[in-house]
Amino acid sequence: MFVPSTDPTTVWFKGEILQGDLSLPLPGDYWICACKRPWSAKLGPQLRFFGEHMAFPMVPDDPDDPDDPYDLVYRMNQPTPNYTEYKVLGGTWYKKIGDMWYEDHPTLGYGEAFWSKKTAPSEWLLYWAMPRP
């Protein structure tokens, strides 16, 4: 969601919270997606978007080599309509700044969507249950 304003804005989400085994199929191309889990967290270690929890093989290679296979994530830079590009190789995340790649994990906000470009079809697998009061 893009709010074309520099003023602070509150957006409320209401609905049923999914629990248990959560999965999201991701085709081997560009796909817009968001976490089914209701929280703000890092895509890699906390939301398990890439790594041993994904149903596809990972290849650790050089992030500067354009011929190496890698998966991409694009996050919108709010409040501008520009995107930041991330790639993941062997479980390590890299953020593109200018023409250089730096190690960095993208952190998603509540309800934030992002673009994913996969080198092969996979499935985003999560398990989550609401804490008991």
**Spatial ordering of strands, largest sheet:** 2-9-4-5-6-7
SS strand fraction: 35-45%
Give the integer mean of the pLDDT values.
Answer: 75
Domains counted in the coordinates: how many? 1
Determine the N-to-C terminus distance: 31 Å
Percent of residues in helices comes to under 10%
Low-pLDDT runs of 5+ residues are 52-61
For the CA atoms, what is the radius of gyration?
16 Å
Major sheet characteristics? 6 strands, antiparallel
Would you tell me the structural class of the helices and strands? mainly beta
Strand/helix succession:
EEEEEEEEEE
Oligomer classification: single chain
The number of strands is 10
Outline the structure in words:
The protein has 133 residues and is an all-beta fold. The chain contains no helices and ten strands. The N and C termini lie far apart (31 Å). The protein has one domain. It has strands at 20-26, 30-34, 41-42, 71-77, 82-89, 92-97, 100-103, 107-108, 113-117, 122-128. It has a six-stranded antiparallel sheet with strand order 2-9-4-5-6-7, with no helix packed on it.
